[in-house]
Amino acid sequence: MLWLLKIRRLFNATGREAVMLWYALRNPATPPGIKLGIVALGLYLFSPIDIIPDFAILLGLVDDLAILMIGIPFLVNRLPAHVQADAARRAERSWLGRWFSRRGAAAR
């Protein structure tokens, strides 16, 4: 049961960081390489081409989740400090960012 709580916290933290990436993508101070990474991550998520095909329901989602759980924090950590702070501030103000923050606090 403890592992389920850890997974829930990970999803909540990554969800808030995904909202931060959305705001960082729209920020003109974000380096082009980071913007390309954000777009590539989003395209992979919605792409019909997967590392593991989605015909096996559970196995097909594993590669998508793994790439998101690794890619989102990787990109957030490479944002310049001022862009990261601005994106975090804007994510906290948005309804989706507040939703993830509340869910993260409830999981603790």
Which descriptors apply to this entry?
globular; mainly alpha; 108 residues; single chain
What's the short story on this structure?
This protein is mostly helical. Helices cover 81% and strands 0% of the residues. It comes from Lautropia dentalis.
Query: Mind describing the biggest β-sheet?
Result: none
> What portion of the residues fall into strands of 2 or more residues?
under 5%
Mean pLDDT: 79
Indicate how many domains the architecture comprises: 1
Q: Structural class per helix/strand content?
A: mainly alpha
Listing every helix as H and every strand as E from the N terminus to the C terminus, the arrangement reads HHHHH
Helix content: over 70%
Count of separate DSSP helical elements:
5
Tell me about this structure:
The protein has helices at residues 2-26, 32-46, 57-77, 81-93, 95-107. It is an all-alpha fold. It has one domain (2-107). Helix 1 (2-26) crosses helix 4 (81-93), helix 1 (2-26) runs antiparallel to helix 5 and helix 4 (81-93) packs across helix 5 (95-107). The longest helix is centred in the first third of the chain and has 25 residues, at 2-26. Residues 104-108 have low confidence and may be disordered. Keywords: Membrane, Transmembrane, Transmembrane helix. This is DUF1232 domain-containing protein. InterPro entries: DUF1232.
